[in-house]
Write a structure and sequence with these properties.
Blueprint (H helix, E strand, L loop, with lengths): L13 E5 L6 E5 L7 H9 L5 E6 L1 H17 L3 E6 L9 H13 L7 E6 L1 H13 L6 E5 L2 H7 L4 E6 L2 E8 L4 E4 L9 H18 L1 H15 L3 H21 L14 H10 L7 H19 L4 H14 L10 H8 L12 E6 L2 E5 L4 H14 L1
Parallel strand pairs: 2-9, 3-4, 3-5, 5-6, 6-9
Antiparallel strand pairs: 1-2, 7-8, 10-11
Helix pairs in contact: 1-2, 3-4, 5-6, 5-8, 6-7, 6-8, 6-10, 6-11, 7-8, 9-10, 9-12, 10-11, 10-13, 12-13
Length: 377
């Protein structure tokens, strides 16, 4: 969205801007924002766009599809809806092919756009389709899970999974805007909400100790969906990600810190075929392991590593991983897309609020800490 096209959010809302030159856009965070999707879509897709394709899944569509469709029609759009499956297994090339076919059959034009209505799987898949259909068309993110609201909907990383690893096939394609309505989290299962909270804590650990402390002090109110602390949490996470993405859009340097907890987390997802762990839960395990690795290297005080573990545990329990084979998890890490010249970078905390990127970890230390993590949980 151009600066001259900025919209005014509903009362009590917040707007976070992602400054990327011609690709700049705004993240609107406000209760009731879902009913204004048509207005935002018209601003970002333009006056000549006649249709818009909504990519969602059956559960989200049942809750919020009619609200979005109604708002789009009021803005003069003809909405077309395509529903994909739920879960990481739906984030595949096969699903993308079906969506491409849907767009081609309906002759969606380049000046028209896509709306991603759902969680991270929907957002990643819809964004990848938008990046590749007719060499790129605009898309609007409407994240409906906490994880997507604070993380995956912002920054332009789109992808599908390969059987050999997560997010190995993708593209950078920034959204035209992001519309976040915290009230949609009322229908989010508690486990999904907890998965998002691990990613929220990640932002505190990598960039803002005050945020980590805020989460620990206000966790009950946030879980109760108290509007003020919840909106602050979402806005602060989005602001941190905006700052990082603006400095390093394509993950050449600083943006790598957003992968804290993901190196081990992605491997845990892969060896369990994306069925056992929610993404955020896997990241929670990965954050603990990364803190233990940092302590093992002597760059993080043991007391800080313990505090990271305690703050992570405070969010809630995760599915057990004690039956997993450590060697398989370590082998899965070798397929991580961040591997360069045969070296796997780890994001390691030096204190809560500051991290470093290291690709020189002794293999024996990695094996030890992964085994300890599995054995403990």
């Amino acid at each position: 969205m151009k600066s001259s096209d900025r919209h005014t959010p509903p009362a009590a809302g917040e707007v976070v801007r992602v400054p990327l030159g011609e690709r700049s856009y705004e993240i609107e965070i406000a209760a009731g924002a879902l009913a204004r999707v048509g207005e935002v879509a018209r601003q970002v897709f333009g006056a000549k766009a006649a249709r818009v394709a909504i990519i969602s899944n059956p559960v989200v569509d049942r809750h919020y599809g009619s609200t979005v469709v109604r708002s789009l029609r009021q803005a003069g759009f003809k909405p077309l809806t395509y529903l994909i499956g739920d879960g990481e297994r739906a984030k595949s090339i096969r699903t993308a092919e079906r969506v491409w076919d849907f767009l081609i059959e309906n002759r969606l034009e380049r000046r028209e756009g896509i709306i991603a209505l759902g969680g991270g799987v929907v957002g990643d898949l819809a964004g990848f389709v938008a990046a590749t259909y007719q060499r790129g068309i605009p898309f609007l993110q409407i994240p409906t899970t906490l994880l997507a609201q604070i993380d995956s909907s912002v920054g332009g990383k789109t992808a599908v999974n390969s059987p050999r690893g997560k997010n190995l096939i993708g593209a950078f394609h920034q959204p035209a805007a992001v519309v976040i309505d915290p009230t949609v989290l009322r229908t989010l299962p508690a486990r999904e909400f907890g998965a998002g909270m691990y990613e929220a804590l990640k932002y505190g650990i990598i960039r803002d100790r005050a945020l980590a402390d805020f989460i620990a002090a206000n966790l009950a109110a946030i879980r109760a969906l108290d509007e003020q602390p919840l909106t602050h949490l979402i806005a602060r996470c989005c602001q941190i990600k905006s700052d990082v993405v603006a400095a390093d859009e394509r993950e050449g340097g600083l943006r790598r810190i957003l992968n804290y907890g993901h190196t081990v987390g992605h491997a845990l997802e892969a060896v369990t075929s994306y069925r056992r762990l929610k993404h955020g839960e896997a990241v929670g395990y990965g954050m603990i392991c990364a803190a233990n690795l940092a302590a093992g290297l002597g760059i993080l005080a043991p007391a800080e590593a313990e505090l990271i573990r305690e703050q992570t545990e405070l969010i809630g329990r995760r599915p057990a991983i004690g039956d997993l084979n450590a060697a398989e998890v370590i082998a899965a890490m070798a397929h991580d897309k961040k591997v360069a010249h045969g070296r796997l970078p780890f994001i390691l905390p030096t204190t809560i609020g500051t991290v470093v990127v290291r690709d020189d970890l002794p293999p024996a230390l990695i094996r030890t800490k992964v085994r300890e993590l599995i054995r403990h949980y």
